[in-house]
Amino acid sequence: MTDPLFALDELPPLSWVPVEGEASIDPVAQTLTLRSAGGVDWTNDATGGDQQHRAASLAFAAPDTPFMLSANVSVVGDRTTFDAGALSIWSDEDHWAKLCFEYSPDGEPMVVSVVTNMYSDDVNSRLVVDASIHLRLAFLGGNAWAFHSSTDGERWDFVRLFHLAVPAGRSTSVGFLSQAPCGERCDVVFSDIRLERSLLSDTRNGS
Length: 207
Description:
The chain is mostly beta strands and about 210 residues long. It is built from no helices and 16 strands. Strands 1-6-15-8-9-10-11 form a seven-stranded antiparallel sheet, with no helix packed on it.
């Protein structure tokens, strides 16, 4: 259900998927802060282990035409392994994706992406040396999507291009996620949030 307390000027109405969470919005700065519960994640273990979908995403209905959603993502306070702020794509428990600013088992913040068509395909990308990173998801039409990251929000580095099937009768939501699989909580601030209703015509030229 759409919550009138959660509204950002750049975005359509926001609601929780697949579970409710905790969030606040600064209407002046147009920033979103998410606080995850402890021990929550999205994962469909590729080895056949237990699935988990208890992390909350504050999201909106994805447009039917190409678009790009981006934000500057920072994590507040101490970090534990695999905690992350992320941009998310959700259709159902077997069809979802996330682009994360995640804390690795080696104690290094990095960009990590996960694409799930029944099972999760998990890929580590670049290390992040700054306190925050810009993340972007782009819908290219059909079932095609792209993930990018950026240090400045202007030049975008390619993370991955992928196909994400949407089951018949299902809709897709895109938005913002906080997870803390191994910790008590994870506080994430999303700023410089942008929704561009245009096609990303080249996924690899930095645009």
